[in-house]
């Protein structure tokens, strides 16, 4: 996987004061990918050291009053051209900079005040559709013993639990809010494992309950609240789905967004609302663009066939009618299943970073669909699924 980095984050002394801003988590990521480094201000031919600059309206002005708008535009264009030519799929930018900043930048008063906005390079790259993050995202997604990665597994995917080097096991019955009468279906198991996969701290939940079993949205999301309580910031949801013909094929998929067709929402219920700052949760980027891009890059590197698409969650338990499948196709849905959407809403409400992976075991609406056929399809893709998850964990 090829990733471009603001050079100062990798320790290059290119900042205005002649220094660098090396960030351990970013350095670690750079060591594990094919790293491309850039500095737009150096590409513009600006000296090091140089007076600091900030964006003022549409212009860039140095602290000594010199207007450097043209130079910044030249450097940003040269760096953007290089990044695009390099074929990178992810760009890690230095936060707040007038060139590289993303989302917030200094306001032009040299008082340390921040305003929403982008650096000149980030503006250029936005048009290219390349995933951009700043170092804060890389840091926030970095797993540790305090912040393990939660992995919730669906039908046919529970075998991943065998990869865990266990430290502790927990019966779901001891998880607050999990229904005491729930019994696992098919290959699910109701024992979470805290441990490591390839030395990355994880908590694996090898089974879940569903709305169609009669449980509430608050109950089915109790595992998510539990994971967050344990300190998990990243959460991987893996689910079995049907592929909507014309939109996706059977096999592995990365979820890009979701449509909640269950008619339920955990944030409307007492237990589901507990600990939530506000139920009015923004659902933009519900599936983390950073984690999705990492998953895509891992799949490409390892030669794993993976598609991407929107997931629609239905109440179930019956499968979709031909008319429903046609409607889902018109809505732009690639995968349809009976889980995940409420869990993703809960994870977003708790500020977690979500990666959604699916095994499309059959075509949506296929008449021969059964738990057995899902398990058989899962068996065919088990090795690729494991390689994909391990590859993602290695890069976090
Ligand atoms: S222009 Fe970007 S890479 Fe260069 S020093 Fe500033 S933030 Fe770092």
UniProtKB/TrEMBL annotation:
Biological processes, Gene Ontology terms: nucleoside metabolic process
Top enzyme category: transferase
InterPro entries: 2-thiour_desulf, Nucleoside_phosphorylase_d, Nucleoside_phosphorylase_sf, Purine_phosphorylase
GO MF: purine-nucleoside phosphorylase activity
Keyword Glycosyltransferase carried by entry: yes
The reaction(s) this protein catalyses: a purine 2'-deoxy-D-ribonucleoside + phosphate = a purine nucleobase + 2-deoxy-alpha-D-ribose 1-phosphate
GO cellular component terms, semicolon-separated: cytoplasm
Pfam annotation, one family: 2-thiour_desulf
Known pathway: Purine metabolism; purine nucleoside salvage
Taxonomic superkingdom: Bacteria
Ranges of residues in domain Nucleoside phosphorylase: 148-394
EC number, UniProt record: 2.4.2.1
UniProt cross-references to PANTHER family, sorted A to Z: METHYLTHIOADENOSINE/PURINE NUCLEOSIDE PHOSPHORYLASE (PTHR11904), PURINE NUCLEOSIDE PHOSPHORYLASE-RELATED (PTHR11904:SF9)
Purpose of the protein: The purine nucleoside phosphorylases catalyze the phosphorolytic breakdown of the N-glycosidic bond in the beta-(deoxy)ribonucleoside molecules, with the formation of the corresponding free purine bases and pentose-1-phosphate. Cleaves guanosine, inosine, 2'-deoxyguanosine and 2'-deoxyinosine.
Stated name of the protein: purine-nucleoside phosphorylase
Species per Swiss-Prot/TrEMBL record: Thermophilibacter immobilis
């Amino acid at each position: 996987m090829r990733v471009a980095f603001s050079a100062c984050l990798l320790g290059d002394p290119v900042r205005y004061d002649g220094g660098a801003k090396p960030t351990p988590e970013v350095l670690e990521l750079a060591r594990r990918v094919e790293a491309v480094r850039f500095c737009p201000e150096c590409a513009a031919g600006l000296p090091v050291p140089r007076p600091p600059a900030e964006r003022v309206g549409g212009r860039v002005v140095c602290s000594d009053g010199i207007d450097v708008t043209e130079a910044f535009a030249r450097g940003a264009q040269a760096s953007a051209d290089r990044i695009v030519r390099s074929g990178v799929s992810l760009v890690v930018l230095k936060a707040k900079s007038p060139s590289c900043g993303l989302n917030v930048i200094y306001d032009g008063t040299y008082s340390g005040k921040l305003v929403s906005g982008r650096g000149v390079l980030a503006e250029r790259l936005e048009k290219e559709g390349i995933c951009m993050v700043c170092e804060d995202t890389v840091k926030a997604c970095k797993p540790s013993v305090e912040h393990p990665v939660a992995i919730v597994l669906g039908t046919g995917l529970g075998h991943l639990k065998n990869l865990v080097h266990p430290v502790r096991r927990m019966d779901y019955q001891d998880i607050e809010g999990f229904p005491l009468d729930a019994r696992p279906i098919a290959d699910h198991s109701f024992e979470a494992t805290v441990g490591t996969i390839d030395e990355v701290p994880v908590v694996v939940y090898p089974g879940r309950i569903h709305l169609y079993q009669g449980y509430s949205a608050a109950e089915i999301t109790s595992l998510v609240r539990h994971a967050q309580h344990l300190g998990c910031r990243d959460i991987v949801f893996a689910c079995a789905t049907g592929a909507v013909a014309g939109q996706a094929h059977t096999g592995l998929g990365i979820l890009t967004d979701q449509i909640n067709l269950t008619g339920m929402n955990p944030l409307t219920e007492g237990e589901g609302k507990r600990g939530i700052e506000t139920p009015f949760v923004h659902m933009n980027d519900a599936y983390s663009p950073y984690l999705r891009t990492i998953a895509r890059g891992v799949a490409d590197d390892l030669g794993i066939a993976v598609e991407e698409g929107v997931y629609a969650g239905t109440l179930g338990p019956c499968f979709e009618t031909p008319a429903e499948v046609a409607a889902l196709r018109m809505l732009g849905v690639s995968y349809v299943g009976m889980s995940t959407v409420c869990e993703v809403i809960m994870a977003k409400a708790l500020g977690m970073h979500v990666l959604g992976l699916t095994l499309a075991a059959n075509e949506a609406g296929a008449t021969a669909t059964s738990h057995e056929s899902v398990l058989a399809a899962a068996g065919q893709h088990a090795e690729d699924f494991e390689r994909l998850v391990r590859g993602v964990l290695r890069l976090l």
